[in-house]
Each structure stands twice: as structure tokens, then as C-alpha cells.
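Quick one: structure for this chain?
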Amino acid sequence: MHALACSALRRLFGFIVEADRCEAWRSYGARDLSHWLWMRYGISDWKARRWIACAHALEQLPLTAGAFARGELGIDQVVELTRLATAETEAMLLPWARNVSSGAIRARADRAVRQTAEEVLAIERDRRLTWWWFDEGRRFGLEAELPAAQGAIVARALTRIADTVPVLPGEEESLYADARRADALVALASARIAADPDPDRATVVVHASVDPAGQPHTGFEVEDGPPIPAESAARMLCNARSQTVLEDAAGTAVGLGRMTREPSAWMVRQVRHRDRGCTFPGCGSRRFTEAHHIVWWERGGSTDLGNLTLVCWFHHKLVHEHRWSIRREAGGVVGWLRPDGTRFHSGPAPPGVESVPERAAVG
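Got it. Here's what it folds into:
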């Protein structure tokens, strides 16, 4: 039975590589393959990422893949061994790996990784960081020079965060790595602003021009910054650190929009305890999560537990910039709707059964 299970897992790992190459996860509300696997099959994010790395490594390790398929190595042994083995070393490592625990293999792999990191040397330089607006205020440029050792820390932090911060639907593959690092930097800065003890200094002010009826008509502009789309402004106003200033055609302030209502600390704690993680079906992410108003605050939604749900950074953008929607259903269940109004369900359909989307009620 163990050999059969290992053989099936080896085949599954082959399909994981295939799913990664064809990006099978993009149409399922997932940010990447790891996100899709742990939503679909109920495994942890850590395990999903280890499995993906192992699956790709096995493509270049035929001896290890064969031993796995025959049950000579268990899943935990193979996951750790693929961190260490290469096409040149696997023949030497296999006899040893068959006779030791997965913990022993992991310890040896950890030592090899640390030795590589310890070889990195830094040359001290003068540090600097500058930024500027360009393209008529629509773009933001950032440039930094740091001592190599400090740069390695920054690069490692952004890389680690980029592993969990998603690529949004429709982004070009050529921009994949760069876009994730950019999103990681924004997520890091956003987390710092959200935790700032000085609400006034941390508040981002958004200016909106209004027509005589008091309705915005020419978009939004960040104070000391560029114009932004209405969808991005709506997402900002769903968070705690922003406020709108309403202005007439002459630029005269005619009123203040409501300061975005931040749930109290006890409310946020209760929402986190109740929801446990992002409520997008199967997501459950606990990183970069926010208490989102189901009925948006700027549309009159109240700040109470029934109108709040926990969403991660990625799925928050799906709501505001990609036109997904949320509703509170009977029994307190949070339902997520695709842009076309169909109800989204997580998980694989039973074998041979076609999954039919549920159409949302109109009105």
C-alpha cells in the first residue's frame, strides 16, 4: 500500500509540473499554483510550496523519481532530498537517503543552504534612496544604493514576501517576477502604515472633484501624489488610513468625505477569531489580511461584525479592481461572486461530475 501511495504521489507531482506550466490556477480565483493547491486539496501553504519545488526537481532527478515511484523513499524523504540532490550527486546520495530519516536529510540540506548563504560578502558603500513622480504624475520611480550586506537583507525580505503576495489576473508573464517584487514592497509599506500609532500622519488624503450635484466627475488625486482610478480609490477608502476631500471646479473644498471607519481593536480581533483567515472559498490566508466592509463604507455600510469579513490583500483587490463581490448568506456564510454574478465554489468536482456555477439572485 505504501508503494502504491508513493507511485500515485509521483504521478500527482508530474501533474503539478504540468499545471504550473499551463497556469491552470489562473481562472480559479487563486494567486498562484501554491494558492490553488492548498485551496483545492486542503494542504498547508508550506507543504504546497515544498511539493511544487520537489515536483520540478524530480524532472531532473530520474533515479530519485524512480525510487519514489517504487516506494523505496517516502514522500518526506523525497521532498527533503530534492533540496539537496543534483543530477550529478543523486546516485551517491540515494543509498544514504534510503537508510536515514527525513529529518537527517533535512538537516544536511539545511547545512548546504547555509554554507551558500555564508559565502555572500559585502562591500560597504554610501547608502541612498530617492524617489520621484514622472509620466505627468501617473508613475512613481524608486532607486536605492545600499551596502551589499544590507541589500541582501532587503532582497531576501522582498523575495520572501513576493512568495506570498499574488500576481493579479491579466498580468503579462514577462512582468511576473518584477510585478511580484513591486507588490511585495507595497504590501510591506502598507503593513507599516496600518500599524502607525499616529493616525493623522499616516492618513493618505484623496482629493475628488465634484459636479454641482456633489458627485465625483473627474476622478481622484492623492495629496502630494498622482491621479488614481476610481476603483483604486474605492479600495483605499475601504481601509483605515484615508479620507476624501471634495472640491468644486475651482478647487475650493466644499466638504469632507467620511473618514474611513476603522473597526475597533476588539472588533478586528473578533473578526480574525471568527473567520480564522481570508474568507474567499478555500483561501484561509492569514498574511496581509484586512477587515473588509461587505456593504462598502462609502455606500453606507456599517462598521459592525455582521458587515465585516476578513480578506487577504489579493482577494481585496479582486473585489475593488476586478469586480468580484461578496454577500453574507443564511447562517453567516460569506458567499463570493465572480464578475459575471456566478457563485464561486472551491475544491475539485467529484470524478466524472461537471461543476455547474450557481447563478446569483438578481436584485
